[in-house]
Specification:
With 499 residues, the protein is an alpha/beta fold. The chain contains 17 helices and 24 strands. Bound molecules: adenosine-5'-triphosphate. The site of adenosine-5'-triphosphate has 20 residues, from strand 2, helix 1 and helix 14. One of its GO terms (cellular component) is plasma membrane.
């Protein structure tokens, strides 16, 4: 019998104060897509990083086709046939697509790089994954989906036998995700073994043949997908049953107008955007990637000013030139890109959580540390943040960082909340908690503007959905009329522009 493509044997990895992986053993087979599931901080990314040479295990062994391997770097792993597809730019940004695809084996003639041959090789590689990206484009000009396609082409070009994907769809729209799934199916057909880390249930069930669950760094089971239904999977991950993903709505009558946006325009990003947001409602903002949703949110919060248009808060026109102006008007903002806008990664989790709240927690100019700790404890417990209050935020897993951004704005208690992809990268238990929280906030009178690429999330939580396409508002649907299909058609421009 042939050996499995990958065998993890007793793999253990410690970071200061935490055992990220504790004696993990399981096999991954060639020609299969193998999901790795678990709560935030369970050790999923760490496992992928050990396999692809970014981290080294403290104990245990990884075997590739039966042979023990120990990679000192991603380059080592790639040479042995293991590639990782990253969410963030993993390439040299200022080089072209072709340079990046052929790094390490640049074709040369008489001592010079042969640009023509380079371009041809890159084009051929991109062709193998059905992509028609111009090889001369600088990497930095590519969107996330295109960058991933280039990474997959590079992996195929290197003859990778194992490819690790870590939450690859978290920044993709529906169409881009569908394209990625097609490519992953093709990799499987070629006999590649795929390790697939994700929190998104539908895609795990769409793609994966086998599911491994980690909890607190320990292996709690490996099962064929066909033998593990969703409820059992969730129970394995979080150690308890989860009754519902979406809360039963606590209905709140629509109250006074809190926010009005009129003719808001940032040329090249969005044009003439108008809507109102009322107390007690969750207003969904839908659109494809690039439709301008996040840009509108950033402008309302004062991160990038508008060229034209007005914002009114509680019936009065206001000038919001900086985030501090927005906060003074009771606006809170959970941004899409937590690393750039949501968190100071070098700070402790406690400090990040109470940044907007320090005034309230201070007396005579001194922060009341006990009150600060109590506040933080409440939100960390409810969101089940897996870190101490003193942990440096950079050391947290991605999902736990997202929970800190949520905790920060929930603690700040503004009555207008803009949430841009609030559950991105968050595990299923905390996701349900955040959903219930959004619903409760609205029931208690907050006005919530919700941006989410996960349509079920948007549809279940919003009382109305405004649709943006190419920077313009193209329609509005009340909850009763907003089906996934109707929204997708509107987002893609396949329907009349009815309001
Ligand atoms: N470089 C690091 N330094 C210190 N601690 C780390 C580091 N990387 C990970 N950890 C810790 O190891 C544990 C596992 O993290 P890991 O990123 O593997 O989790 P995960 O399952 O991928 O979570 P998520 O779903 O949130 O991405 C966490 O407690 C995390 O804080």
């Amino acid at each position: 019998m042939t050996s499995p493509a990958v065998e993890f044997r007793g793999v253990t990895k410690r970071f200061p104060g935490v055992v990220a992986l504790d004696d993990v053993s399981f096999d991954v087979h060639a020609g299969s897509v193998h999901a790795v599931c678990g709560e935030n901080g369970a050790g999923k990314s760490t496992l992928g990083k050990i396999l692809s040479g970014i981290y080294q295990a403290d104990a245990g062994e990884v075997r590739l086709e039966g042979r023990p391997v120990r990679f000192a770097s991603p380059r080592d792993a790639l040479a042995a046939g293991v590639a990782m597809v990253h969410q963030e730019l993993a390439f040299c940004e200022n080089l072209t697509v072709a340079d990046n695809l052929c790094l390490g084996r640049l074709p040369s003639r008489w001592g010079f790089v042969d640009r023509g041959a380079l371009r041809e090789r890159a084009r051929a590689l991109l062709g193998t994954v059905g992509a028609s990206i111009d090889p001369d484009r600088p990497m930095a000009s590519l969107g996330v989906a295109e960058q991933q396609v280039v990474q997959i082409a590079a992996a195929v070009g290197e003859g990778a036998k194992v490819v690790v994907f870590d939450e690859p769809t978290s920044s993709l729209g529906e169409a881009e995700a569908a394209n990625l799934f097609r490519l992953i199916d093709e990799l499987r057909e070629r006999g590649v073994a795929i390790l697939y880390v994700s929190h998104r249930m539908p895609e795990i069930y769409r793609l994966c043949d086998t599911i491994t669950v980690l909890r607190d760094g320990r292996h709690v089971g490996t099962h064929p997908t066909s033998e593990l239904d969703e409820a059992s999977l969730v129970q394995l991950m979080i150690g308890r049953r989860l009754e519902q993903y979406f809360p039963a709505h606590v209905s709140a009558p629509r109250g006074e107008e809190r926010l009005r946006v009129e003719g808001l325009t940032r040329p090249g990003h969005f044009e003439d955007v108008s809507f109102t947001l009322h107390a007690g409602e969750v207003l969904g903002l839908a659109g494809l990637v690039g439709a301008g949703r996040s840009e509108v949110a950033e402008t309302i919060f004062g991160i990038v000013p508008a060229a034209r248009g007005f914002v009114s808060v509680r019936g009065k026109r206001v000038q919001i030139a900086h985030a501090t102006d927005a906060m003074a008007h009771g606006i809170g903002f959970v941004p899409e890109d937590r690393k750039k806008q949501g968190l100071v990664l070098g700070m402790r989790t406690r400090e990040n959580t109470t940044l907007p709240t320090l005034d309230r927690l201070s007396r005579f100019g001194f922060v009341d540390r006990a009150a600060e700790r109590d506040t933080v404890r409440i939100y960390f417990d409810r969101l089940r943040v897996k870190a101490t209050q003193e942990t440096v935020t950079a050391a947290l897993s991605g999902g736990n960082q997202q929970k800190i951004v949520m905790a920060k704005w929930l603690a700040a208690g503004g009555d207008i909340l803009i949430l841009d992809e609030p559950t991105r990268g968050v595990d299923v238990g905390a996701k349900a908690e955040i959903h219930a929280w959004i619903d409760k906030l609205a029931a208690e009178g907050a006005a919530v503007l919700l941006i989410s690429s996960e349509l079920p999330e948007l549809l279940n939580l919003s009382s109305r959905v405004v649709v943006l396409r190419e920077g313009r508002v193209v329609g509005e649907l009340p909850r009763e009329a907003a089906s996934q299909d109707a929204l997708l058609r509107m987002m893609a421009g396949l329907t009349s522009e009815a309001a």
